[in-house]
Amino acid sequence: xxxxxxxxxxxxxxxxxxxxNAALYQQLKEEQILLSxxxxxxxxxxxxxxxxxxxxVICRAxxxxxxxxxxxxFIHVGNQVVSELGPIVQFVKxxxxxxxxxLDEVQKAEMKAYMELVNNMLLTAELYxxxxxxxxxxxxxxxxxxxxYPWPLNRILSYQKQWEVRRKMKAIGWAGKTLEQVLExxxxxxxxxxxxxxxxxxxxxxxxxxxxxLVFGHLFTILTTQLITDELSEKVKNYSNLTAFCRRIxxxxxEGHEKESSAIAARSSKRSLLK
Amino acid sequence: MELxxxxxxxxxPSLHPESLTVMAYAKFSGAPLTVNTITNSWRAPKGDLPVLxxxxxxxxxxxxxxxxxxxxxxNADYDLSAKQGADxxxxxALLEEKLLPALLHTFxxxxxxxxxxxxxxFASRIAFPLSLYLPGKMSREALNRILLxxxxxxxxxxTEVEAxxxxxxxxxLNLLSKRLGTSQxxxxxxxxxxxxxxxxxxxxxxxxxxxxxxxQEHLKQLSNLCRFCDEIxxxxxxxxxxxxSPAGQDTADANLQKLTQLVNKESNLIEKMDDxxxxxxxxxxxxxxTLKLAAGGEESSPMSRLSP
Lengths: 275, 308
Known about the structure:
The complex is a heterodimer of chains A (275) and B (308). Chain A is built from 12 helices and 4 strands, in the order αβαβαββααααααααα. With 275 residues, chain A is mainly alpha-helical. Chain A has a domain at 3-99: Glutaredoxin (3-Layer(aba) Sandwich). Chain A has a 4-stranded mixed β-sheet with strand order 2-1-3-4, covered by helices on one side. In chain A, strand 1, helix 2 and strand 2 form a beta-alpha-beta unit. The N and C termini of chain A lie far apart (43 Å). By secondary structure, chain B is mainly alpha-helical. Chain B has a single domain (2-237), classed as Up-down Bundle (Glutathione S-transferase Yfyf (Class Pi), Chain A, domain 2). Chain B contains 11 helices and 4 strands; from the N terminus they run E-H-E-E-E-H-H-H-H-H-H-H-H-H-H. Chain B has helices at residues 17-29, 62-71, 82-109, 111-123, 130-150, 158-180, 193-207, 214-220, 223-237, 247-279, 296-306; strands at residues 2-5, 34-37, 51-54, 57-59. Chain B has a 4-stranded mixed β-sheet, covered by helices on one side. Chains A and B meet through helix 5, helix 7 and helix 8 of A and helix 3, helix 5 and helix 6 of B.
């Protein structure tokens, strides 16, 4: 978007307060959603909970196609549609809610760097595992991704997506990596996050920020989703402060709600993945 | 250990960001690398550059090369705390995600830059007929990478993608500048892996003379980053202003080192001699007691012997 268009949208966003019927769209929780999309969606939900903004989670089979950028999740607020955590954070900031206002410049730089680390390593590793590891692709991804559609559309759509993801992996140099190398990268990333978190409750001490939401989204999904092997979740479980961090955020922001929280749903998706 | 990489110009030891990163890290950690720059010959190594060859082991990506050097005990991150090590990883991820697309674009995709600077320079260093094919391939790979990682909807045309990646790159430069502040290196007074990576990415933007230079102009406004690059170039690469390292410089350095070592040895010997003299029994330690005039005879003889 050009600068003028961005300014215009920000103006529109700032004009109205957060409505009651804001909705977050993602794919179907039980049958369709994959690890990486679930992680992104949970991160956005955690962020909105931390900002105390009410949001309703709506599951649609074609969420990916409805999204303006092709990626889930996206939120529908008033008459605007915004997708992905980065733009959503900016949109929410334009409405006057922000979690990172109390940080100084150096801390903001650090926060952005760590968010890029999570996107660069954890998200890419999740995508690799889902789409480039043949066993996982055959047994989990292909059945889940095309499940709302009849044959042959389900196979065509999942092959198309696989081809896209593999092209991207090749362009960034991950196509030549083996699964062990990818798991080692995940371990390195978790080690860095663990070192940065230390014994603090949140990454920037007392208050949660969008970095905490993002890390929670990814780590919690990795811990609670059952794949072919447990290697990925074992890598995260090695770091006790990270598991404690996930539990703390889950208890604080997700357990006190009447509507079905994503935490409970993620645990039930664990059962449904055992096909 | 031999490193094969792209050569340099405009005051830099190498134009290629990854080669520059590895060379900088080798200088910081004191690893003895012989650098082979690619010249117009048929001895080009296969695969991507930079490539490290050490006793039949061939390693190709910068991260792996740095890991190998660390295992050989050439570790520039020795003094870093665990948190600083974590910060290093995070900032490297930031550089790769936000700055690298714009860097690739400036070098390989921007038509004027590519045709007038990058392609002739690289073609002159690759043997014919590969020089007709390889620069084009590198350019296509760069465009591919930019489009696949940054080019999805809602950005539908190349100009929108370009606007977005340059905006991200300028923001990244601002963040780096804020993080560096007024200190000499990112983690105090000694350079580390992060300094090598930042230098590798920033120096080509800073020094290479392109026709289209929006990123360079933005970088020049951030004086602490410019100072950072210049300091590393003068202290670790010892290149003069014209960019050519004088041939005699290395031998002069070696001689200087030998001379310093000799002088140090001499001064050690002199110190030892001094110690021996002081410890010998004829010279008891001087006692700052007041002279008693009554026992003048006994006192005077040690006093007279103490005089050099």
